[in-house]
Amino acid sequence: MGPRPDCGSARRRAGSADPAAEAKVTEPAWKAKPSYYLIARDDQMLNEPLQRRMAERAGMTIAESAGSHAVYVSHPKEVADLIETAASAK
pLDDT tens digit string along 50-68? Predict the structure, then answer.
């Protein structure tokens, strides 16, 4: 095996390459912009009541679809529809 890379210098380079990485967040986007959540009713990782509670707590607009945790794979049209709705929101 060769020498171990210096991860610290890689992290410093990555952080300095993007000014956004050093910007301070003054207001989280989920508080200031409309947010959307697609409840995947067949998700076995996050059950439906938990998904609903999280989305409601964050004040999100909720849509629902059959589908598992990877709802974007099993129901891409529903996911795309929600993205289009969110993108056209004011």
Answer: 999 999 998 999 999 999 9
